[in-house]
Amino acid sequence: MRPIRPRLALLGAALLAAAPLGLAVPATAAPDTTATPTVEEQRLDKAAPQEILRRSGFDDAAPDFARALAGVRSPAEAERVIAREGGHLWKRAVDRVQGRGPAGGDLSRDDDRPLYWARLGMTRALGQWQPGFPLTDARRAALLDTLERTSRGEDSIDLPAGKAGQRVKRIVVTGFDPFQLDADVRRSNPSGAAALALDGTTIRTDSGPARVETAVFPVRWADFADGTVERTLLPAFRSGPRRVDAFLTVSQGRVGRFDVERTNGAWRGGYPDNANASRTETVPIPAGVPTQRPQPQWTTTTLPYERIVAANTGPVPVYDHTEVTEIPAGGSTPVVRPDGSTPGSTARAGGGGDYLSNEIAYRATLLRDAVGLKAPGGHLHTPVLQFGPGNTDPATGQVTDPDFVHDREAITAQVRSILTVVADTAR
To answer: How many helices (H) and strands (E) does the chain have?
Structure first.
């Protein structure tokens, strides 16, 4: 994911510490509080998000969730209700994109934005909820974490176990929320749309079927630092009968091209996220997850990039992208290297830049190496999804148009074709 402007900086459900929800609240617990709406939640009241919700039928998600919360009588019940409602939102979004059930309105089914805006309505409702029992800030944060995880598919990756004579390959794909919404609140993210379209599907390849499970991540630095990527991927990366045979992290990149990112760097460049927060630092690895020490500056894709580039996957060209930015060993000034990093250098941008798309690629491949996963895996950048001619002004433009829908559908179709190449090479 790249900020949509000529800059090599690219596109984070937090692991929030909280007391177990089933424990009694101490007499000295902090008084109940409600949360101030977040930066993301404040955008929800703009006209475009409200139209997107209305035209998809997802405008009922937050009110229904608030009514469900109103009937909750204990912390344990709150956890159950929130997990159920978050999972229902994810399934509802997947079903809509994949053509199951009612469309709910005239917004095209392939649209990823109803999920994003409906989730924010639900997180805002949770933040403002005043239950009839004590609820500390820490417990509310833990409940928010449950809502984030379940409504993003992060806790529902269900890969089949291998069976003799019935071998099904297992693949995990991830996407991202829309981003850069202060510039244009109408934006969609084709990586999120592709994830919704692929979740739970089976891809047929020359070497057998492949089951695909997906999740969609937030565009927030803090969530990544708190381990949302590792928490989601680790169960599928560990040894066992359900271990992945391939993985693909996907985000939005540059105009008019797909990029298979060869090298990922351990650096955050500070571009503001969806919470308007910035981080400029070495990628922080959360405690308690498998990793490598010392922390490497670079990780490398194991995707079959030569085969992907050579395959006829669709109308948009696909590139093996090798450029990085580094501080050479013994140096102090960043240098752009078109053919990858040099020994002993310090990362300043991977092939995917220095934003959260580079970071998810770095985290996923670092985790791959730490647990000894021998499988094709790495990052794919999609083309930028743009509105059609005459609909480029966010102040006066429509929330959708035929070119916008056509291009998003075409990007999803080509992601599926690229994934088929990846699946065919998996053992």
So the answer is: 12, 14
Q: CA-to-CA distance for 133 and 368, rounded, in angstroms? A: 43
193 contacts 112 by C-beta, under 8 angstroms: yes
- pLDDT tens-digit profile of 310-337? 999 999 999 999 999 999 999 999 999 9
User: Does the pTM exceed 0.85?
Assistant: yes
Three-state DSSP class for 232? helix
Pairing state between β 335-337 and 169-176: unpaired
**What 3-state class would DSSP assign to 204?**
strand
pLDDT in tens, 287-301: 999 999 999 999 999
Give the phi and the psi of residue 30 in degrees, each rounded to 5.
-65, 150
Q: Which residues contact 197 (CB under 8 A, 6 or more apart)?
A: 97, 98, 110, 412, 416
DSSP per-residue letters across 35-46: PPPPHHHHGGGS
Please give the single-letter amino acid code of residue 177. D
Give yes or no for a contact between 332 and 272, defined as CB atoms under 8 angstroms apart.
no
